């Protein structure tokens, strides 16, 4: 349903029922939303129109609207319009549950409705996940894993670790990142439960609610609610083929501000920032006193022998917080990431992390230490880079073969993603729904951007080459009709 349209229906309350009419109306509206018939963002008819259509007093409708608003399901604006803002949580609880009015009161915002749908549908048996940002489970290094786990027999204990994480793992990371030109000490490293936790820690430890985070447009961060839930504003900065247009970042701002960037194998566009742009960005942010969060999640997934060094390697003053992870290179289930920053920042983040979870998994940290110290991690990376390059080449061929001049995209130099734009306006919500019907799960570009994109984030990392081709065939079949008009 188009979000600019109002809800339509033919239902009427049952006046012979013992259930109060206002309660019947609440049940009906909730059922329509929960079923997906009325989508998040859809405009409800005015209270006057609802009352007339249902044959009830306006005071009855006011009671209905007040209760739905209290449950966080609808929202009214000063112009008198009312729209649906939630399709879960409160609707899933019994109406008599004492938790019903609490479930939406927390400060953490719900995911975008489409993100919720994707998260739910990813585990549907047989569905082809054409946008998933994970490695194919078949690429898990089972034999190396057995070797890495064997030394666990000699682990002294699995007690809580210090706030910054296992010392041996921090030392291994310090040695490992020198190949990227990053110089650090173990005291400048914090082990986290993946990069996502690092971002959450930053949002609650370092930035106030009136802060602003500049990001590329589009950006992975837009698909999350971590910063927005803390009251922090995200502001988009355009990109070109070399990366973020740094000169578009405001030179002055009264708010506390920071830049979040993925310069290498960007998510979702696949762009890798040029060395010239990296240097210019670093200098621009330094002059204008803008600290940087550099997300290196895809740093190691380069296909060319000469890869770009992270911006962090230029940082002599501790102006950059660098995030690393093995979720994209080894296994997301390990839940191992790291932050490299100045010691006061690490101490602050570590203190709050201890309040949250008392540290990342001790078992995972010992295993990752063995992977790094033994050289098995780099051995595995070589195999993954070779495989991802093969899948990238195959993916590009398949997209061109089946979608041809319907789409535009550039072949990425690494990472997981192809940012594919349709050359004709496509109704993305409808495309998403139609794709699910034929067993294909898409990641529409709108969930990563601040404005409609008419794009998809295509991932070649999760599906086998055969599965990828089948998914693209089905996608081509359902998009064909929009190009024949």
Write a structural description.
This protein has a seven-stranded mixed beta sheet with strand order 5-13-12-11-10-6-7, sandwiched between helices. The chain has a three-stranded antiparallel beta sheet with strand order 1-3-2. A three-stranded antiparallel beta sheet has the order 14-15-17, covered by helices on one side. The two termini are 21 Å apart. The chain contains 14 helices and 17 strands. Helix 9 links the parallel strand 10 and strand 11 (292-295). The protein is α/β, with parallel strands linked by helices. The model has no long low-confidence stretch (mean pLDDT 90).
Features:
3-stranded antiparallel β-sheet; alpha/beta; 485 residues; 7-stranded mixed β-sheet
The biggest sheet amounts to:
7 strands, mixed
Cα separation of the termini: 21 Å
Inertia-based shape: globular
- Work out the helix count: 14
* Major β-sheet strand ordering: 5-13-12-11-10-6-7
Query: How many E-type strands?
Result: 17
What structural class should be given to the helix and strand makeup? alpha/beta
* Regions with little confidence, pLDDT below 50 for 5+ residues: none
What's the assembly state of these chains?
single chain
The residue-averaged pLDDT reads 90
Helix amount: 25-40%
Strand-residue proportion: 5-15%
Radius of gyration: 25 Å
């Amino acid at each position: 349903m188009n979000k600019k349209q109002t809800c339509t229906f033919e239902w009427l309350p049952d006046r012979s029922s013992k259930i109060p009419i206002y309660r019947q109306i609440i049940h009906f509206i909730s059922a329509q939303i929960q079923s997906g018939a009325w989508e998040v963002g859809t405009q409800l008819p005015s209270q006057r129109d609802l009352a007339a259509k249902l044959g009830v007093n306006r005071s009855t409708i006011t009671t209905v609207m007040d209760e739905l608003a209290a449950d966080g399901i609808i929202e009214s604006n000063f112009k008198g319009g009312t729209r649906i803002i939630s399709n879960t949580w409160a609707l899933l609880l019994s109406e008599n549950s004492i938790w019903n009015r609490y479930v939406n009161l927390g400060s953490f915002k719900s995911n975008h409705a489409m993100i919720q749908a994707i998260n739910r549908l990813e585990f549907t048996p047989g569905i082809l996940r054409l946008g998933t940002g994970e490695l194919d489970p078949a690429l898990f290094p089972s034999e190396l894993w057995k070797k890495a786990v064997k030394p666990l027999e000699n682990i002294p204990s699995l007690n809580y670790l210090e706030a910054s994480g296992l010392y041996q793992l921090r030392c291994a990371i310090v040695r490992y990142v020198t190949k990227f030109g990053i110089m650090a000490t173990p005291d400048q490293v914090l082990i986290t439960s993946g990069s996502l936790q690092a971002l959450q820690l930053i949002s609650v430890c370092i930035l106030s609610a009136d802060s602003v985070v500049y990001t590329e447009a589009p950006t992975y961060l837009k698909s999350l609610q971590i910063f927005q839930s803390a009251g922090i504003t995200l502001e988009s900065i355009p990109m070109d083929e070399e990366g973020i247009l740094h000169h578009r970042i405001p030179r002055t701002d009264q708010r506390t501000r920071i830049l979040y960037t993925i310069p290498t194998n960007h998510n979702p566009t696949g762009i890798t920032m040029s060395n010239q742009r990296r240097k210019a960005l670093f200098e621009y942010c330094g002059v204008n006193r803008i600290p940087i969060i550099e997300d290196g999640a895809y740093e190691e997934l380069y296909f060319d022998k000469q890869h770009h060094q992270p911006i962090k390697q230029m940082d002599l003053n501790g102006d950059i917080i660098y995030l690393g992870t093995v979720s994209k290179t080894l296994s997301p289930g390990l839940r191992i990431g790291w932050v490299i920053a100045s010691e006061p920042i690490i101490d602050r983040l570590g203190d709050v992390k201890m309040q949250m979870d008392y540290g990342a998994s001790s078992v995972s940290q010992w295993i990752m230490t063995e992977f790094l110290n033994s050289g098995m991690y780099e051995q595995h990376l070589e195999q993954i880079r070779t495989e991802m390059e093969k899948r990238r080449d195959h993916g590009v061929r398949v997209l061109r073969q089946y979608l041809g001049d319907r789409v535009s995209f550039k072949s990425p130099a690494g990472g997981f993603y192809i940012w594919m734009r349709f050359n004709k306006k496509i109704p993305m919500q409808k495309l998403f729904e139609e794709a699910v019907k034929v067993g294909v799960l898409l990641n529409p570009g709108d969930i990563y951007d601040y404005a409609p994109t008419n794009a998809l984030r295509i991932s070649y990392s999760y599906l086998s080459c055969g599965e990828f081709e089948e998914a693209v065939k089905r996608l081509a079949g359902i998009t064909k009709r929009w190009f024949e008009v």
